[in-house]
Structures are given as C-alpha cells and as structure tokens.
Design a protein that fits this description.
Elements (H helix, E strand, L loop, with lengths): L2 H37 L4 E13 L12 H5 L12 H4 L4 E6 L2 E2 L13 E2 L5 H4 L5 E3 L10 H13 L3 E3 L6 E4 L2 E9 L3 H4 L2 H10 L4 E7 L10 H13 L3 E5 L7 E4 L2 E4 L4 E4 L9 E12 L2 E2 L5 E7 L12 E2 L2 H16 L10
Parallel strand pairs: 1-2, 1-13, 2-5, 3-4, 5-6, 8-9, 9-10, 10-12
Antiparallel strand pairs: 1-14, 7-8, 11-12, 14-15, 14-16, 16-17
Length: 350
C-alpha cells in the first residue's frame, strides 16, 4: 500500500471513529439527562391559612355588663369562646383574626361611640384555640390611647401570636416558606397610604407569600365601594397574594383578580361589640398555598366554611359555630350572589 493510500485510509478510519465517539457521547449524555429527569423530585411546600373576621374580646363600658363578653369571661374558661371552631383552626398552619379592640389595664377611653378594652388574660381566648396571627390595623386599635395598643402588642408577643399593623409588617417562616403579614387600616387615609411601603417591606425581607388584612368599607353594606375594589387590585398588583377584608360587620363578596382572591368582608366572628347583632352570618376562609421549587402556584385551592357568630339566633353568646342546614344554605346562596357581581358564579364551600 502506498503511503498516500495509507494516509487516506487512516484519515477515513479516524473520521469514522470521531463520528462514532460523537454518537456514543450523545447517547450517553441523553441517557444521563433522562436518568436525571427520572431521579429529579421537585421541592413542594404548602402553607394552609385560615382567616376570620372581627374578633372583639371586650365589652364597651356603656353596654349592659350582664349580657356582654366580659360576663361570659368571668368563669375563667377562655377556651369557651372558640371551642366550636378550634378543631378547624387546628387543621391549618396559621389562623388569622382581625383583633378589633385592645387588651390593657392602662389608658383612658377615647371619645367615641364604642371603645373596647379587654383584660390582658383574654389573650388566652386565642392561645387555647390555635390562633397564631392577629391583624391590629383597624379603627379600635387605640380605643384607650396609644398605651393600650402598646400593651396589646406586648401581650400578643408574649403569647407567641404574630401581630401586624401598618409598616410593622413581620415575616414568619412556615413550612420553609417566608410569609409576610401586612395589616392596613384603610379607614384612615394616612394609614392607607402606608400599604405600598408595608408590602414593599416584606418583599424586601424575602417574603414568598404576602397576606394582606385590610380594614375598610361601610358598615352594614353588603357591596364593596369602588375605593375598596381599586385598593384591592392595587394591593395585588403590588404583590399581595390574598386580600382579607374586615370592618363592614356583614359578609361581602369574593373576587378573583389576576389569579389572587379578594375577600371583601368576612363579617364579625367572636364579636363582643354587640350582644345581639341583627346579622349573625359569617364565614371562615381557608386557602392552601402551594410552592414548587419556591414558586407560588396559581390554583383555586380554597374553601369557604359558612358559620354563625353565635349558637343562638336571638342573642350573642360570643361562641361562633359552623352553620348547618338551612342557615348554611342561606349563607352559601348569599355569598354566591354577592360574588357573582365579580364574575364568580361558583364558590368552593365546605
């Protein structure tokens, strides 16, 4: 064989070998990639949140003391008040109440129609019933002056209950997820203006889930105002993942905006502000937030649980209970009707 032919032959052999190596390399890489895909397990984290409306653990000094919240608390059995719903609260990772009032032995009563100051030991109503978080951003947070708010924060902190108001927006890690809590009293223009900063604060702290509890609207109105809707949409655009409304003392509808839920009003709950409210309907809102590899999923994993603020129709025993029978059906119908105005014609009830 001539040197020229030998060189040509060697070139061909090397070329074929290079192609073979390349093919084998691709096959190995593809098999490795497939094996990695089969072995990969995404990180799934969930946070189950329950929210309820106004909880006022006190009796106004001008109300009938024999029929008020304080009279029921005299026994010292603080588990009495939420015993019917405590099993529901125990199922979640965090239960949030709107704490409308104060717990303090200090301060002077504000010059207003209704003012609420409960004993510091009333915090046990929450701790004995699996309540882990309290919004303080409302129009009764300083009913006995700023010192009464300071004391309320102190007693909640000592009890291990997350509390939030305005730019005091804490982060709590739940099941490995950083959850930011924001509370805004939108009845006060100065406080309402803090919403953007408060949401920004928890975002900067690395919040993966932002829960906004907001106090707004008109008492006894079953429809939110345009201002409520605009503010709710703005909150979600800023980063809130759920908006929980309080203050009207009655239920309002639910809206889904950009994949996030807005509860315009959850009404009253364990409500010491009135010994016989005319509307005793309420609801418990439960949502499961799912994260896959740290990213919040968009889904409809929520339920609304119809309830009543009292076990009696003709007076308030300050002991919320789950609604049953005709009362449950009526609350479901009411909420569906209210929510249909926002395009939600079906709701998930339990």
């Amino acid at each position: 064989m001539s040197i020229r032919k030998a060189a040509l032959y060697l070139t061909v052999v090397l070329f074929i070998a290079a192609i073979a190596v390349n093919i084998i390399g691709k096959v190995v890489a593809e098999r490795r990639e497939q094996a990695e895909k089969e072995a990969y397990q995404p990180t799934v984290q969930t946070v189950t949140m329950t929210a309820v409306g106004d909880c006022t653990l006190a009796t106004d000094v001008n109300a009938d003391p024999d029929l008020g919240f304080a009279a029921y608390a005299e026994s010292g059995d603080y588990s009495y008040f939420l015993k019917n719903v405590a099993p529901v609260f125990a199922e979640d990772d965090v239960t949030i109440v709107n704490f409308e009032g104060t717990m303090s032995n200090r301060g002077e009563r504000a010059d207003k129609t209704f003012a609420f100051r409960g004993k510091p030991e009333y915090v046990k109503v929450l701790t004995t019933s699996s309540v882990e978080a309290a919004n303080l951003a409302n129009n009764h947070s300083e009913d006995y002056g700023p010192e009464s708010l300071e004391d309320t924060i102190k007693y909640l902190n000592e009890a291990g209950i997350v509390n939030f108001i305005g730019t005091n927006a804490p982060i709590k890690e739940i099941n490995g997820v950083k959850v930011g809590f924001v509370g805004i009293d939108a009845l006060n223009d100065e406080e309402a203006a803090k919403m953007e900063k408060a949401i920004g604060t928890v975002k900067n702290l690395g919040a993966q889930l932002i829960i906004l509890s907001i106090h707004w609207g008109i008492e006894k109105d079953t429809e939110p105002t345009e201002e409520q809707t605009e503010l709710a949409h703005k909150a979600i655009d800023l980063g809130a993942d759920v908006v929980i409304g309080t203050h009207p003392h009655v239920l309002q509808g639910v809206e889904k905006y950009n994949g996030k839920y807005i509860l315009y009003s959850l009404g009253n709950f364990c409500f010491g502000g009135n010994n016989n409210p005319s509307d005793k309907d309420t609801a418990i809102y439960r949502q499961v937030f799912t994260f896959i590899d740290g990213t919040l999923q968009v889904d409809d994993n929520y339920v609304i649980i119809p309830a009543r603020i009292s076990g009696h129709d003709d007076y308030n025993d300050y002991q919320p209970k789950l609604a049953e029978g005709e009362q449950k059906a009526a609350i479901q119908q009411k909420l569906t009707e209210y929510s249909s105005k926002f395009g939600l014609t079906e709701l998930n009830f339990r």
